[in-house]
Amino acid sequence: MAQNLRTLSLFSGGGGLDIGFEKAGFNILFATDFDSACCQTLRLNAGTTLSHNLAVVEEDINQLDLDALPTDIDMVIGGPPCQSFSASGRRAGGAAGKLDQRGNLFISYCKVLEKVQPRAFLFENVRGILGTNKGQDFKDILSAFSELGYCVDYRILDAEDYGVPQQRERLFIVGHKLEIPFLFPKPIYGPDSTGHTPYITVREAVEDLDFTEADRAETVFAGGKYSDLLPKVPPGSNYLHFTAKRGYPTPIFAYRSRFSDFLYKANPEAPVKTLIASPGKYTGPLHWDNRYLTISEYKRIQGFPDNHVFFGERVDQIRQIGNSVCPPIAYYLAVAIKEQIFGYESNVTYLRPDEKLSFDKRKSAKAQKTRQKHQSVFEKSKDNPQLIFNLHEYETNIIPNDLGKTNNLKVKMFDSDRVELMVRSDKSQKTQAKMRLVVFDGIARSRKLTVDVTVKGQSEFGIQTMWNAVDNWVKQSSNFQSLLELYGHFTEPHPIFEVKSFDIRCSLPIFKFAKHIADFENCSAYFPKEQLMQMWKDAFHGTDFLDLAQKLRNYRFDVRCHETNIAIPQGVYMVAYPFALPYDKQMNFIVKEVANG
Q1: Cβ 109 vs Cβ 145: under 8 Å
Q2: SS3 483
Q3: What is the C-alpha to C-alpha distance for residues 421 and 473, in angstroms, rounded to an integer?
Q4: Which residues contact 66 (CB under 8 A, 6 or more apart)?
Q5: Residue 593, exposed/middle/buried by CB under 10 A (0-12, 13-18, 19+)?
Q6: Element (H or E) spanning 37, and its range?
Q7: 141, 277, 338, 473: which could form a disulfide with 323 (CB 3.0–4.6 Å)?
Q8: Following CA atoms 502, 503, 506, 511 in sequence, which dihedral angle do they give, to the nearest 10 degrees?
Q9: Number of other CB atoms surrounding residue 584 within 10 Å
Q10: Rounded Cα–Cα distance for residues 438 and 165 (Å)
Q11: Burial, 489: exposed, middle or buried (Cβ in 10 Å; 0-12, 13-18, 19+)?
Q12: Is 151 tagged catalytic?
């Protein structure tokens, strides 16, 4: 194709959008990103996968010199960083959207549009952008584009429908000045394609790649406390394989206590789940040969050409790949834009404006199958109603607090369905609190174990001591690594225990606070800051809220507020977990800068 459509690329990253548009016949004259490694990648590929006359500018878009941009521009492409709208943001306590400075980068995008006046633009972002701040963010984005004189059409599209061996849903907005709606390209693969063409599997995508000794050394999956589990994970599954609900006889994780990419092993006969930019030690997709993926495999799974070179160390390259738009879907969008907006012919088949794609329906069907699988495990478990804890009596010393002092813990059994934990925070015999927990077997809530916990002493660290005792008992009596595993992540907890009663016998405010949040309904819920200050008014008279929040985090309660997470409204606070976090759980308290002081 003759490359004569003058194009600017913003937030260019590793060049995923750019490759697709170049292939479709757009001439990308200018690309910019604030990340140095990305800019180096763009420069390395100028003349191969990217235009030979590409100008790359490393700059924060807010500081970009608009007067220095190329003129007579036909097209602008780009998607601002998605973290403020994404699932990773929700994991941290809520997707901040426009409350995060990164969520306002679309304003700078609009300033470029206003300056160069292209005939069309493509704006890409995560699906989560539709829902942040109750949908207001997305309305504001559409309004901003409308005010510039553009009609906008948008769709959620999945990369696997366009030849990428990866499930990757993204929002695409096309701005134009047509008098009719812009039509999006119909899927090429999958059940929504014209010929129901099977998806490209990850095996098909990577099977002809060489696997060198250097690759072997770089992709070893070993050395961590969960590394030995990966060979036991069936292809296509993840940590859920080791849960009671999936029928694992000695559960290691509670259901939904981790995110779905934890210990996720790729199924070679299907596309993989979404690649992420900053994977952790146990983050998938992991290879079905029980190793990490190579960079070459990452590139194929994301749809990059083999000859597209990424600058930097392995972690830098994975970050660039995971943040990129998949080039194949970019290509089909570019061809559709070129035909409908710029008048070139193509053989693309289009979706009708009212035509719905089936990925959400397929997710619902998959969820139904999962429920049926859990029901089957439940029915089988009726014949073997065994709890997931190995009940036994023991005595040990535990570390109750950050002072490092050890205290005695005694565990006693009463019948087969009740245990008692007795722990001291100091040498005093005075009872500070009694708590009763009910722990379920992870399958049926009718099968339960009662755990009575008593803490004695006079120390202000008695609450820490009590919860550390519970955490120690969990580790000693089961395959779970901590109390956190029984509760799940606070954004979507599925606890297999309940606090049935919490009786405090002392006047220390930390005990009152602990009783308040031991009610699960008071966790991940917003309360006025004044409520917390009132609870502590006598103990810390004159202390401001942030100092108090710091003190509570020193007690290892996960207190969050606007100053620590911008997605949380001002004037309120929340506590993520209904217990003091385990002693070995690091707690950091960083006050981030808040706009306007």
Answers
A1: no
A2: coil
A3: 8
A4: 111, 112, 115
A5: exposed
A6: helix 36-45
A7: 277
A8: 10
A9: 10
A10: 44
A11: middle
A12: no
Contacts of 567 (CB under 8 A, 6+ apart): 89, 92, 93, 94, 95, 96, 97, 99, 100
The alpha helices in 117-175, defined as continuous H runs, are 136-147
**Pairwise CA distance, residues 160 & 363, whole Å:** 14
Q: Rounded distance, CA 367 to CA 374, Å?
A: 11
Q: In a structure prediction context, what are the per-residue pLDDT tens digits for the chain, which is 597 residues long?
A: 446 899 999 999 999 999 999 999 999 999 999 999 999 999 999 999 999 999 999 999 999 999 999 999 999 999 887 444 434 443 444 444 344 454 468 888 999 999 999 999 999 999 988 887 788 888 989 999 999 999 999 999 999 999 999 999 999 999 999 999 999 999 999 999 999 999 999 999 999 999 999 999 999 999 888 999 999 999 999 999 999 899 998 899 888 888 899 999 999 999 999 999 999 999 999 999 999 999 999 999 999 999 999 999 999 999 999 999 999 999 999 999 999 999 999 999 999 999 999 999 999 999 999 999 999 988 888 877 666 788 889 999 876 554 556 678 999 988 778 999 999 888 889 999 999 999 988 887 778 899 999 999 998 889 989 999 999 999 999 999 888 888 888 877 888 899 999 999 998 889 999 999 999 999 889 999 999 888 887 766 667 888 888 888 888 899 998 887 777 888 999 999 999 988 776 555 544 433 332
The span from the CA of 126 to the CA of 170, in Å, is 5
Nearest-angstrom CA–CA distance, 454 and 9: 63
d(CA 255, CA 272): 21
Catalytic residue among 38, 39, 82, 561: 82
What domains can be seen in the chain, in order of their start residue?
Answer: 5-193+317-363 (3.40.50.150), 394-575 (no CATH)
Joined together, the tokens standing for residue 111 give: 């300033």
Please compute, for residue 78, the number of CA atoms within 13 A of its CA located in the half-sphere on the CB side: 25
Cross-strand pairs, 185: 350
d(CA 63, CA 22): 26
